[in-house]
Amino acid sequence: MTEHRPVTKATPVNATPQPVLPDAQTVTEVKHWTDRLFSFRVTRPASLRFRSGEFVMIGLMGDPDPKTGRQKPLLRAYSIASPSWDDELEFYSIKVQDGPLTSKLQHIRPGDQIILRPKPVGTLVHDALLPGKRLWFFATGTGFAPFASLLRDPETYERFDQVIVTHTVRDVAELAYGRELIEGLRTDETMQELLGSENLAKLTYYPTTTREESPKMGRITTLLEDGTLFRDLGIEGISPETDRAMVCGSLGLNTDLKAILEGFGLEEGANSEPKHYVVEKAFVG
């Protein structure tokens, strides 16, 4: 009998990890969307306050140093994909097989712990934009994450008459996270009550792919420049009088869209000086 006691005692400890990481939060849910994309939810620190669209630093402990045996935290900036009112925190991530953090992070399971530094920051917030009529969200890949937060925030719809979210990816499967979230807004009773059907009627979803065949092909920059986007949506164009924009994607996309938006006369804003558009500069992936 005594031989089995250590095993019996160890089982509940393994099932419920004890907080051993600095700023530890517990993983509550993990969903793998493709072999390159996954999302996960973690507990929210009771003291954490953030504005929808902001990001935090999250991570895991790195491998022990071969000489000293010490471990250092591996931290990266991740947009919070859940809205500010959510009881938990949601994140949306790529998987980089040789990436220092995501090569480890992609294997997390419910009950595991991650490091979460509870100091949210970021530019993709309503406070950084002047009032306007129409709000554009321009995302590529996992750049959809901050907009997943903002799309579930009532303030987004209270501030604007129209909300247009564009999401550009390589393959159709990479649209699944965003598409499911937006469909959920329109069908989930809780979201209907929170946001209101009249507000959800303001929302337009414009997904495109660049590699796999889909109903709408092409990079969003091209579709903006040649006017396809405006023709598809029945909009005359973008102007600083009516339009505001948020951009989150690869460095190349951010640079290209900045030039396009400024070509329309929009000026880049910040928390300290609200203007017509903002870009997330700390995006990972």
**Major sheet strand order:** 4-3-6-1-2-5
Oligomer: single chain
Strand content: 25-35%
Mean of pLDDT = 91
The termini sit apart by 52 Å
> Order of SSEs, N→C?
HEEEEEHEEHHEHHHEHHEHE
Task: Summarize the SSE layout with pairings.
Layout lengths: L4 H11 L8 E9 L4 E7 L11 E7 L11 E7 L8 E7 L7 H4 L7 E9 L12 E7 L4 H6 L3 H6 L2 E8 L6 H12 L1 H7 L1 H4 L2 E7 L10 H6 L2 H6 L9 E6 L2 H13 L13 E3 L6
Describe this structure in words.
This protein is an alpha/beta fold. The chain has 10 helices and 11 strands. The protein has helices at residues 5-15, 102-105, 145-150, 154-159, 176-187, 189-195, 197-200, 220-225, 228-233, 251-263, and strands at residues 24-32, 37-43, 55-61, 73-79, 88-94, 113-121, 134-140, 162-169, 203-209, 243-248, 277-279. The chain has a 6-stranded antiparallel β-sheet. A 5-stranded parallel β-sheet has the order 9-8-7-10-11, sandwiched between helices. Helix 5 (176-187) crosses helix 6. The radius of gyration is 21 Å and the shape is globular. The N and C termini lie far apart (52 Å).
